[in-house]
What does this fold into?
Amino acid sequence: MRPDQSFKGRQFAAEVILWAVRWYLMFPISYRDLELMLQDRGVDVAHTTLFRWTQTYAPEIEKRIRPHLRPSNGSWRVDETYVRVKGRWTYLYRAVDSRGQTIDFLLSARRDARAAKRFFRKALGQPHTVNPRTITVDKNLAYPCAIEQLKEDGELWRSSHLRQCKFLDNIVEQDHRRVKRLIRPGLGFGSYHTARRTLAGYEVMAMVRKGQLRKIDGRDIRAQATFIAELFQVAG
It folds into this structure.
């Protein structure tokens, strides 16, 4: 998708849009806070427009960044946390490797073997993941069932070892806090569609800040901004 197609019909420059979306996805701010920040820089844009930008470009940023991530290792930590969507609690499945690098995520209305299996399939299909040697989970009974089915289907190595130990899952449980901190200013999500698209942006920008991009340091904000602009063929 070329820049003139990605940003066609927008009243603001692509650089402004990407700047606003990146900052919303990186820091715990509300759309109204971001509106004031942009006004301080001479850009008059409504918070509703910022919401639409995020819904459009957050999943697009995730899709374009995925192929450029460093490979994760084969020691997975998997857990789920709660996210409020339309006034109801839903489940956000998340996985990191033993270094704390994000593997993948999945929002689900249910917490069962089918949802767990769907999450593992999604994670295994990513370009930066490998078939895990070990998978550490909590005592949720859905995980052994899902793992066994994946092995029977040939999607997971037979030698992959499942460990059910809550203590060893501390890495991913600590990582949940970052997601919750970003969600809090928005007071939850109004729909599953909104939640999935926004969470995709939160997670992929966290990967960038963790240093998961090849050849780009997690603390080099300018290099990150330039890289994302180049993905859209926009001057950084």
